[in-house]
Amino acid sequence: MSPSPSTPAVAPVRRIALLIGIAASALAAILIAGFLFAELANSGFWLLPGFGLLGIIIFAQSFPWFLLIVILLLLCALLFLLHCCFASFHRCSSLRIGLLLFILTLACGALLSRTAILRGWQPPPPPTSGFPKDPLLRGYGAWRFHNIFQGVVREVGERTYTIQNPDGFSFTIESGPGTRFPTGKEIVVGDTILIIGEPRGESIRAFGIRKL
After folding, report:
1. What is the pLDDT of residues 50-100, one digit of tens each?
2. pLDDT tens string 140-169
3. N or C, which end of the chain is more exposed by having fewer CB within 10 Å?
4. Bridge pairing between strands 192-200 and 203-211
5. What are phi and psi of 102, to 5 degrees?
């Protein structure tokens, strides 16, 4: 049986489809990495290890591992498509190429996070249903990062600070003898501070406070 006239066109069409898949996987991975870096930078999350062991534990607990797993899955798909599209990749080390793609993706995502598109990006507000009505929990808590709070200082007391969070709510921060101040205790009205602590009603018992 003679081949149909459309047979010679199958390979180019397949390659075009593979190239589109490669471009889509790479762009999606870079975009997600950009959002990840933007959120970590805007929230001050990456500063948590400076609070010591407790900061490291909260960092490990609260890090958005799901986004990192999605990035890795996209890179695995990208690596597979590259192997399917270019025969020369079969002679290369998949581990080396995968590591290089991962580093390039993180580098491009870090650069993207510094652009005007993502620099001031904020996560969407928590849902109005099925979520605590307490403004402290709605503004912070598990919806964003576990036991991590940020705001602008509006009032400074002897051992307390009144801050205003990004949603406009005001809360009292209580410090104690065990509270850590990695950047010093010279905190004045107008400073933006990062706090790790335990919510208590509309106040927060701070384990660590630092200026951003």
Report:
1. 778 878 887 887 788 888 999 999 999 998 888 887 766 655 577 788 889
2. 333 345 577 888 899 888 888 888 877 777
3. N
4. antiparallel
5. -65, -45
Q: Which domains does the chain have, with CATH numbers?
A: 10-119 (no CATH), 135-211 (2.40.50.320)
In total, the chain counts a number of residues equal to: 212
Q: Which three-class secondary structure string do you get for the chain?
A: CCCCCCHHHHHHHHHHHHHHHHHHHHHHHHHHHHHHHHHHHHHCHHHHHHHCHHHHHHHHHHCCHHHHHHHHHHHHHHHHHHHHHCHHHHHCCHHHHHHHHHHHHHHHHHHHHCCHHHHCCCCCCCCCCCCCCCHHHHHCHHHHCCCEEEEEEEEECCCEEEEECCCCCEEEEECCCCCECCCCCCCCCCCEEEEEEEEECCEEEEEEEEEC
